[in-house]
Design a protein that fits this description.
The chain is 14% helix and 42% strand. Strands 1, 2, 3, 4, 5 and 6 form a 6-stranded mixed β-sheet that branches. Strands 7-18-9-12-13 form a 5-stranded antiparallel β-sheet, with no helix packed on it. A 4-stranded mixed β-sheet has the order 10-11-17-16, with no helix packed on it.
Length: 277
């Protein structure tokens, strides 16, 4: 995954594997939607609020700053939303925030330049205390493989810049060469909340599978007698409701049929897909 939007999912995966956070649920639904009322354990949502990508300058032997043609510097404003039950107390919010930031600074390859948090708020509807925080990541993106700065835990270094490198008429990337020989591709997208969504995979697939990693395939709302479907699959000519193949990928449709609602493009959720050739 060569895109900055992969960062929240990578961070969630990495933090979830740390032993000290085994009792915390991490996910990329931002801001978080409480799934338990009242809340019974701490949950942390990770997202990106905004980012700024600027030219990168490096001093030459004479001390003069020179613009790097094929490199850029990104300042990424990442957000955390920490929710804990009332019984944990407000101190738990600050402790979780501090532990996460310390873990990322000292044990990951991210270059975190700043962190801060807001005041703790009370959510009476879910009996939860909420702390919103942020941290700023500075990262260099260059085509070279021999950079001193390593971000392999979360981001691949091949974030190509400059018109010459991006000219697909004269260059073929290593990823494209590998993709030609693969029987399928996998990827992800973030929900936008629109009724329909078209995803391009670079070829006309014969089959596709879509799911939301934060939910089971079907979430049942017993109180309202409704079902939300977070899974879909399609082959040529057939498919589950809300998924169809196109000449360049596939399209989702958040349709409703009786008590069943297809939810394959809900705002803020992340979805994973596999498209087969």
């Amino acid at each position: 995954m060569d895109s900055i939007v992969a960062l929240p999912a990578r961070i969630v995966e990495w933090l979830s594997e740390r032993e000290q956070f085994k009792n915390i649920k991490f996910f990329t639904e931002f801001p978080p939607v409480m799934k338990e009322v009242p809340l019974r354990r701490a949950i942390v949502a990770v997202g990106i609020e905004d980012m700024k990508i600027v030219d990168k300058f490096v001093a030459n032997d004479d001390g003069v700053l020179e613009r790097q043609e094929y490199c850029r510097t990104a300042n990424i404003n990442a957000r955390l939303s920490i929710c804990v039950p009332y019984s944990y107390g407000g101190t738990a919010c600050h402790e979780i925030f501090t532990d996460i930031i310390d873990e990322l600074i000292f044990n990951s390859d991210l270059n975190i330049t700043e962190s801060s948090c807001s005041e703790i708020q009370s959510d009476r509807d879910t009996s939860a205390l909420v702390l919103n925080g942020k941290f700023i990541i500075s990262a260099d993106f260059c085509p070279a493989e021999i950079l001193d700065n390593n971000y392999f835990s979360f981001l691949d270094k091949k974030f190509f810049c400059a018109s010459h490198i991006q000219n697909s008429d004269i260059h073929v990337s290593l990823q494209e060469k590998e993709r030609w020989n693969e029987s399928f591709v996998q990827g992800y997208y973030f929900g936008t909340g629109t009724a329909t969504r078209s995803i391009t995979v670079g070829f006309e697939p014969n089959a596709v599978i879509i799911f939301c990693p934060d939910y089971s395939p079907c979430e049942i709302d017993f109180a309202n007698s409704k079902n939300k479907i977070y899974y879909g699959t399609a082959i040529k000519g057939y498919g589950t409701r809300g998924v169809e193949l196109t000449s360049t990928g596939f399209k989702t449709n958040n349709t409703t049929n009786g008590s069943n609602k297809v939810s394959l493009n809900d705002m803020g959720l992340s979805y994973v897909y596999m498209a087969f050739k």
